[in-house]
Structures are given as structure tokens and as C-alpha cells.
Description:
- This is Helix-turn-helix domain-containing protein.
- InterPro entries: IS30-like_HTH (IPR025246).
- Residues 15-51 form the Transposase IS30-like HTH domain.
- By secondary structure, the chain is mainly alpha-helical.
- It has a domain at 22-55.
- 54% of the residues lie in helices and 0% in strands.
- It is built from three helices and no strands.
- Helix 2 crosses helix 3 (46-55).
- The longest helix is centred in the middle third of the chain and has 12 residues, at 19-30.
- It starts with 18 loop residues before the first helix and ends with a helix.
- 7% of the residues are buried.
Amino acid sequence: xxxxxxxxxxxxxxxxxxxxxRGIIQKLLKLGYCIREIAIESGRSASTISRNAxxx
Length: 56
């Protein structure tokens, strides 16, 4: 069995961001947080956060 070194916060079972998550991400970006910081804290990939940022 392969070793998984990812954070236990990672939520790979969810495919889409919730409306609440989208709002939080937008607020954090406006406050100056970088995409990677938001990704780590939310347990999402940086590419997911980046795609969400580009939509708005």
C-alpha cells in the first residue's frame, strides 16, 4: 500500500466548491492571501483555488 503524505484536511471526495467556500476564497484573496496559502488551509489544490479566482 502506498504511503499518503497529504494533510488529513485534504477533501478529495468533493468535486465542486460550495457557495460558502467560494465566498471565503474571494474574501481571502481580497485580503491579500496567496492562492497556495488558501489551498493549504482549505485542503483544496492550488489549481482549484486558482480556477475559482479566475471565474470572478
